[in-house]
Amino acid sequence: MPTDAQRIALWRAYDLICPYCGKPIDSYFHLEIDHIIPQHFLHRPHEVQELLIRLGFPDLDLNSYPNWLPVHGRPCNRDKSGEVQPDTTLLNYLGVARRHHARAQQEEQQFIRGAKAGVAIASIKHLIDGGVIKREELNNYLNESVEIKEERQLPIRMTQRFYSQFDRLHNASLQDAQLLVDALRSLADGPSSSDSAVKMGGLRGTYVRNVRKWRVYYTRSPEAVTVLSIETKADEF
Fold first, then answer.
1. Closest to 96 (Cα-Cα) out of 144, 30, 34
2. CB of 9 within 8 A of CB of 104?
3. Cα–Cα distance between 57 and 49 in angstroms, integer?
4. Is the distance from CB of 20 to CB of 71 less than 8 angstroms?
5. Chain centroid to CA 161
6. Residues 90, 80: contact at Cβ < 8 Å?
């Protein structure tokens, strides 16, 4: 399966356009990577080898750019499912993938260089500003798999103040950004032993959680966790 870097590289290499329907894939969260020749063929080596020889691609790696397409999850990829298309259709899309192969590799390297340079937060801001990722979708991502002891999800809400501060965090490394995301998602478990109760704007039940370079201020009620603000620890830079 493609990595996140490869998924984004494919999305960019096709200019965010789904090759099946020709319409924009307007959000990363709507993106799926389709295998032109289904990957379940890997469990049938003799059949896949016969097919690849017949198509003229005997050395094709099914888990590589020449066999991947960035598509809508619904309806494009769902309609196709795991069926094997006619040879003429396969050849058409394999040709499309081949034409985009080099650019996809370039986009992957560019993405990796950017991540290593510490622009993970800036990249998220760019996607939000460009309308590629909606703030609601970021909320949904943070809320995925967050459960409390009663085995129900506790939503995490972000204030406008948090978003305005978040937009200014340009210097976070990829590892630091992931730690921040993990910390935000863990807030639904309630205050940890390392959290401190603070007074903030007269709000009761306000806590601060220290996460690497940041302090995260939040409140918690039976209905939701609300992230109030985030600030950097200047003394650690």
1. 34
2. yes
3. 9
4. yes
5. 24
6. no
Residue owning tokens 């966790």:
225
pLDDT tens for the chain, 237 residues: list them.
788 789 889 999 999 899 999 999 887 778 899 999 988 888 888 998 999 999 999 999 999 999 999 998 877 876 555 678 899 999 999 999 999 999 999 988 887 776 554 445 555 655 666 565 666 666 666 555 444 334 445 677 878 777 666 655 544 455 556 666 767 777 766 667 788 888 766 666 788 888 767 788 888 877 788 888 887 765 443
List the one residue out of 165, 180, 182, 177 whose CA is nearest residue 118.
177
Kindly report the number of other CB atoms within 10 A of residue 70's CB atom: 28
Q: Where in the chain is the domain with CATH 3.30.2310.20?
A: 127-236
> Structure tokens of 155?
């939503």
Token pair, residue 69, equals 């397409």
Query: What is the C-alpha to C-alpha distance for residues 229 and 158, in angstroms, rounded to an integer?
Result: 8
Positive or negative CA dihedral for 212, 218, 220, 225? negative
- CATH T-level assignment (fold) for domain 127-236: YaeB-like fold (3.30.2310)
Q: Which residue has the tokens 């306000």?
A: 206
Burial of 94-112, coded b for 16+ CB within 10 Å and e otherwise, reads beebeebbebbeebbeebe
Nearest one of 154, 214, 138 to 187, comparing CA atoms: 154
In this prediction the pTM is 0.54
